[in-house]
Specification:
By secondary structure, the chain is an all-alpha fold. The protein has helices spanning 16-37, 41-67, 73-105, 129-152, 156-182, 191-223, 233-258. It has two domains: 1-69, Helix Hairpins; 72-256, Four Helix Bundle (Hemerythrin (Met), subunit A) (Up-down Bundle). Keywords: Membrane, Mitochondrion, Translocase, Transmembrane, Transmembrane helix.
Length: 261
């Protein structure tokens, strides 16, 4: 039987999944050592190794789709479905965080003073850095959409520069979130409010950083002429992910910043 006579892609044997699995295990062990013993050597080395593994894995996928022609229309259909399911799982992850938030805020317990935010917690002004970050992320959604429109119009130079603008806005968002955390009047250990606040905004911030890395890879691929107006699945996936980050932030701003003020 000739296995090559089909439109699907049989993935070749790769060491990266098992390497990444062990690396993630060491990463979480390093986080425990960092939290409890202030020993950060394992977590830093694990993060560096994870970046190297992801680089090699991403390189192989780009090679398969761009140079080897493995990403046929059938494969791209399944990859799109996989990305949709991944984003759906991320939506339910944030739903669990919002569920915890409303569970504590709609009926505050006596342990936190029957009030929300709990007594002693000074919440951020939602019309300060949070509103600025909202404008930044909404603007980045517009620039990434313009970048996609330019690509499907065969205007790759405009697509590249619009994508660079999106990446810069993402970095600005992360910088202002760092400033906000640095000036925070409460910590993650200050009652359930502090835990929920930093978990939700922190995980969203991590998603912004991951999305920015995704977009930087796409910008490099545009520069190297990897995409065409009909074949740019990696860029489409990055756009979906970035719009997902934008929409989640609107809920974060409305419920956690504005409603709690």
């Amino acid at each position: 039987m000739n296995l090559s006579n089909h439109p699907y892609h049989i993935v070749s044997i790769s060491p990266w999944p098992i390497f990444l699995s062990f690396n993630i295990m060491f990463l979480f062990i390093g986080m425990i050592k960092w939290f409890y013993f202030q020993n950060f050597y394992l977590i830093i080395s694990s993060m560096i190794l994870m970046m190297l593994i992801l680089f090699q894995w991403w390189r192989d996928v780009i090679r398969e789709g761009t140079y080897q022609g493995c990403h046929t229309s059938y494969v791209m259909k399944n990859l799109r479905l996989g990305m949709i399911l991944f984003i759906t799982s991320e939506i339910f992850f944030f739903i669990s965080l919002f569920w915890a938030y409303f569970h504590s805020s709609l009926a505050p317990s006596i342990e936190i003073g029957l009030m929300w935010p709990p007594k002693g917690i000074k919440m951020f002004n939602p019309y300060d850095i949070p509103l600025l970050n909202s404008i930044i992320l909404i603007s980045s959604g517009m620039t990434i959409s313009w970048s996609h429109y330019s690509m499907i119009s065969n205007k790759f130079k405009k697509s590249f520069f619009s994508l660079i603008q999106t990446i810069i806005l993402g970095f600005i968002f992360s910088f202002f979130q760092y400033i906000e955390y640095y000036q925070a009047p409460f910590t993650i250990s200050d009652s359930c409010f502090g835990s929920i606040f930093f978990l939700t905004t922190g995980f969203h911030g991590i998603h912004v950083i991951i999305g920015n890395m995704f977009l930087m890879i796409c910008a490099l691929r545009i520069f190297l002429n990897h995409f065409s107006k009909n074949h740019h699945l990696g860029f489409e996936a990055a756009i979906w992910y970035w719009h997902f980050v934008d929409i989640v932030w609107l809920f974060v701003y409305t419920w956690i910043y504005w409603w709690s003020f």
